Every structure is written in structure tokens, then in C-alpha cells.
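User: C-alpha cells in, sequence out, please.
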């Protein structure tokens, strides 16, 4: 028998400040199928990704075909940020690796890397592969191999003070001082003597292959451009200058456009004046006279060559006259440079320029900031505003940004697209909402809470007050939210929350080809004071009551499923 308890559609007030969402309740279906429902689920018995479900007295760990009951220290248990997807968690007593407990002092815990089957991590005292300590490795020295600029780090190559390792295997003879990562290929690195792939030296016709740059490689007798042997380059003197530039005793080469390497019109007499900027999607080189972008000579009217510079990880450039971004102009059929609209008073240089840490979000010139993505100029910034926005401090689930209020620059916390707050208000699409800015915070996914209300956020409609959730007792619960009365998902009331436990989760329908419009789904097994519930979460939520006790004959999924007493 299929019973639709009731569904009441959204009712929105006319003001964006007080839109309300009335009660949506799950559909109860006593014939709801217990089992997966087909689709591309990869053959997993449980949900595909590792997950820890934290209940009041115990924890369930699951991955594709594994499920374990853990009796961890609940009060100190935490899933490690960014690495929970690999099944990593901690409590005060140790580390949990894909549901397996390692008793250890967790001080200095660091996740190092992952290959096809193993995890590497360490504490202040030891290095571990999965759950096994590696006594030959010194935890204080063992760290990820980085490029020479220390801007990117490998997840499969590591080093200590003396050696380089492919995961935990020492690579004999690798030169630590000259080791560098290969751009855009995490399986490889090189040193002054060899190139390495998956920890092994790379050979070409029995000759070791040497790295020149992203496009050029060589042996003792051959030069290869994109793996094709080329002539007219002196093998012995060929050296890389950057990802896209190289030189031999005769010429400077650009390896970026087309199928052929380009020889730049640079005299040998000017080789000692070469300077290169090569990163992100840009590559520039100068001989002190001309400035080239890849193999194209830029007009001397475009930049002052002597003061030209870049920021190191964006496509923005500068000279003494200004800061620029490039774009392709269809009418002119070429790349042009647009000047940032700062109020320029001093010559531009690295001394009065800054950029957002690790991002091209803001460029700062003296006490101004420009956001190129929105074409917004912020003037008269305080040192505090520059420091905070430049470092982009991560407050849980949100980020500080610059904003404007009555033409004055302010700091705002960005939660989601169009959703932000400052000390005065919470805003949606630039308009004030009635949410309290002091107590406003994110619960999970698109749920927010303040001292008065729980909200569901819709990017177009804004904050929708869920007026049927008890604010004082609302909390996050394993991908759902709950209060003293009920469990909720996507604003829908599911089952009562008294003595609620989540026991397992299973894959439902997975989308097939691009024309498949069937809604995806997941299934969950819950237990509360009333008994056991089978819950289907899809575009709608459907529930089935299984009884006060779990009849394991209802489904093969339940036959060997251990349930804590």
C-alpha cells in the first residue's frame, strides 16, 4: 500500500527577507524495493566512497564492499579535512585508516599520498603505509618531493635528507639536489642524470632519456620534440630554460605552437641577458632588447622591457606603467592587453604590487585592489583589509572577500554564489536579508542557521526559512540535519530523530548515458525508537518501515549485516 502523507508546496512571502518553506514530508511506501535499482553503480555493495557515520555510541565505516562497526572515542573523533574521501579519521587514541585502527600519538598527523592501493601518512614520530609503520623512514625528514620553486608537490614521490622515494621504495642513485617534478605528469620526475617514470629510469633505444623541458627530451645522440626525433639542434649543449624555452650553443628555441619547434631571432651575443617568465598559460622571454610571448615578438609600444614582470602563477603581467591582462580580440584577430584601471601615482614594481595568496582573485597596487573577474576596483583599503583579503583566511565553510557598502570598502564573508555577510547584514544577490549576521553560520551543504531560524539556500530565491525545524536543537547528522523531533534532507521531514542511528547506506540508481534523465538515488538503513527504516533519497524522499526488529530475510543486503545492540 502506498500512502502519500502530505506535500505542501513552497509558499514564498513577497519580501526577499522572509521567504518561508512549509513542511515537506517523505512519502511512505510499504512496497519500496529493498535493494539497488540498477544504473552505473560499479558493482559496489555499499556507497562507493569511504564514509564514517557517527552515531551516539559507535561509528559505522563503509566503503564500496566493506562495512565495520567502530567503538571510537566519539567526543574526539574527526574525519580529516580533505582526506576523509580516502577513509582517514582521528580520535584522541589514534588514526583510522579505511576503518582500521592504529593506536598512536596523532601529534603532527600529515597525509602524504596515495597510489592505486596504498595510503602513506605520518605523525611526528613515525611514517606509515596503510596501518604498518615503516621503521626505516625518518618522520621528521620524510616529506613530499616538490618542484624547485616549491609551488607543487608530488603525491607519489617523496624525499628525506639523503634520498628520493617512489612511495616507500628508495630510488637508488637519484640526485636529490637537482630533482624536479615534470609539469602536468604526476608519474614522472627528473634529475641531472635521468628521467623517471613510476620510479624507474626511462630509456629510449637503450639510452637514458634526459629532460630538457615540457616538449624537448634528449639522449646522448638524439633530440626529441614531442617524442619525434629532430635534427639541427646541438644535442650536447641543449639545455632547458623553462617549460617552453630552451637553448643550445647556437639558438634559443620556443616549443609551444604548432608541430614544429620555433627558433627565436636572438643573437648569441645576448644569451647572457636572457630572462624567462613561464607559468600558468603564459610564457615570455627577453634578450634585453625584445620581449617575446612564446615565439611572437611583442611590440615595444606594449611594454617597457626593462621593467616587465609577472606574478608567478597567473596570466597577469606588469611593467612600470601598469598591470595588464590579456585577451583575444576577434576583430583584430590577435591577443591584446588590457590595463587595470588603478589610479596610478608611482611606477609599478614588485615593491608596490601584491596578489591574493595562491590565487588571481585580487591584484593590489598600493592601497587599491582590482578584481579582474568582476571588473571591480576597490580604493582606499586599510592595511587590515589588504592583509585579510590577500591571505583569504578560511573560516569554516566560507571565505572573506572585499565588498562595497555605500561606496565604502568592507570585508564580507562569502558562503555561496550570491550569499555573503558583513558585520551589518547577510546579503543575497546584494540585497539585505533578515538573517542575523552575528549568529549566522553554515550547517551543511545548503543549510544555514542563526539564532532565530534554520534556512535552506536557493541561489535564485535566496534564504528560505524552514519554519518547522527547531532552531535550538538543530545539528548536522551524517549528511542530513536533525532536530529534537525529526531527521531532514533537502527540507523534507523524514523520520523521527529520537534514538536515531544510521546503520548503512547503499547505491541506488546511477545515471547512464547523457540522455538518461532518470533521477539518481541512494538508500539508507536507519534505526530509531520506533524501529528500522529503509529510506530512498532521490529527487523525492520515500520511506518504508521495516518493523521493530530487522528481518534479515527481507533482502540479501541484510543477511550478513551486523547491527549494534
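Assistant: Sequence out:
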Amino acid at each position: 500500500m502506498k500512502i502519500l502523507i502530505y506535500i505542501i508546496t513552497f509558499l514564498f512571502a513577497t519580501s526577499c527577507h522572509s521567504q518561508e518553506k512549509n513542511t515537506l514530508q517523505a512519502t511512505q511506501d510499504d512496497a519500496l524495493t529493498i535493494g539497488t535499482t540498477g544504473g552505473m553503480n560499479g558493482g559496489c555493495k555499499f556507497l562507493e566512497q569511504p564514509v564514517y557515520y557517527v552515531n551516539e555510541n559507535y561509528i559505522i565505516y563503509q566503503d564500496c564492499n566493506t562495512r565495520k562497526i567502530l567503538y571510537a572515542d566519539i567526543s574526539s573523533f574527526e574525519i580529516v579535512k580533505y582526506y576523509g574521501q580516502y577513509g582517514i579519521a582521528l580520535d584522541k587514541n589514534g588514526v583510522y585508516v579505511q576503518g582500521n585502527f592504529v593506536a598512536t600519538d596523532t601529534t603532527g598527523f600529515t597525509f602524504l599520498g596515495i597510489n592505486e592501493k596504498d595510503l602513506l601518512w605520518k605523525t611526528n614520530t613515525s611514517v606509515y603505509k596503510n596501518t604498518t609503520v615503516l621503521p626505516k623512514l625518518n618522520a621528521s625528514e620524510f616529506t613530499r618531493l616538490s618542484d624547485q620553486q616549491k609551488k607543487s608537490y608530488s603525491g607519489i614521490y617523496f624525499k628525506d635528507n639523503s634520498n628520493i622515494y617512489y612511495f616507500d621504495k628508495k630510488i637508488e642513485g637519484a640526485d636529490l639536489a637537482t630533482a624536479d617534478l615534470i609539469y602536468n605528469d604526476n608519474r614522472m620526475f627528473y634529475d641531472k642524470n635521468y628521467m623517471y617514470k613510476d620510479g624507474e629510469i626511462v630509456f629510449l633505444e637503450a639510452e637514458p632519456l634526459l629532460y630538457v623541458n615540457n616538449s624537448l627530451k634528449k639522449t646522448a645522440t638524439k633530440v626529441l620534440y614531442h617524442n619525434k626525433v629532430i635534427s639541427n639542434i646541438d644535442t650536447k649543449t641543449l639545455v632547458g630554460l623553462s617549460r617552453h624555452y630552451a637553448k643550445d650553443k647556437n639558438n634559443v628555441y620556443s616549443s609551444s605552437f604548432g608541430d614544429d619547434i620555433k627558433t627565436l631571432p636572438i643573437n648569441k651575443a645576448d644569451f647572457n641577458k636572457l630572462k624567462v617568465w613561464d607559468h600558468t598559460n603564459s610564457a615570455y622571454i627577453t634578450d634585453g632588447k625584445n620581449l617575446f610571448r612564446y615565439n611572437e615578438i611583442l611590440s615595444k609600444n606594449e611594454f617597457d622591457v626593462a621593467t616587465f614582470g609577472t606574478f608567478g602563477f597567473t596570466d597577469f603581467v606588469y611593467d612600470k606603467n601598469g598591470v595588464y591582462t590579456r585577451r583575444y580580440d576577434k576583430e583584430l584577430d590577435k591577443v591584446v592587453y588590457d590595463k587595470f584601471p588603478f589610479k596610478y601615482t608611482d611606477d609599478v614594481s614588485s615593491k608596490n604590487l601584491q596578489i591574493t595568496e595562491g590565487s588571481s582573485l585580487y591584484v593590489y597596487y598600493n592601497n587599491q585592489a582590482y578584481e579582474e573577474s568582476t571588473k571591480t576596483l576597490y580604493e582606499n583599503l586599510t592595511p587590515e583589509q589588504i592583509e585579510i583579503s590577500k591571505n583569504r583566511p578560511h573560516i569554516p565553510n566560507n571565505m572573506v572577500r572585499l565588498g562595497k557598502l555605500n561606496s565604502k570598502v568592507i570585508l564580507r564573508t562569502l558562503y555561496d554564489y550570491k550569499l555573503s555577510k558583513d558585520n551589518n547584514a547577510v546579503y543575497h544577490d546584494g540585497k539585505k536579508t533578515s538573517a542575523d549576521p552575528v549568529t549566522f553560520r553554515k550547517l551543511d551543504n545548503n543549510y544555514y542557521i542563526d539564532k532565530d531560524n534554520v534556512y535552506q539556500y536557493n541561489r535564485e530565491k535566496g534564504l528560505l526559512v524552514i519554519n518547522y525545524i527547531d532552531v535550538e536543537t538543530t545539528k548536522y547528522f551524517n549528511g542530513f540535519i536533525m532536530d529534537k523531533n525529526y531527521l531532514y534532507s533537502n527540507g523534507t521531514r523524514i523520520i523521527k530523530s529520537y534514538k536515531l542511528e544510521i546503520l548503512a547506506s547503499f547505491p541506488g540508481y546511477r545515471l547512464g548515458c547523457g540522455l538518461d534523465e532518470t533521477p539518481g538515488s541512494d538508500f539508507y538503513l536507519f534505526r530509531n525508537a520506533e524501529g528500522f527504516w529503509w529510506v530512498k533519497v532521490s529527487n523525492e524522499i520515500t520511506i518504508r518501515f521495516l518493523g521493530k526488529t530487522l528481518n534479515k530475510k527481507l533482502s540479501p543486503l541484510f543477511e550478513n549485516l551486523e547491527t549494534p545492540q
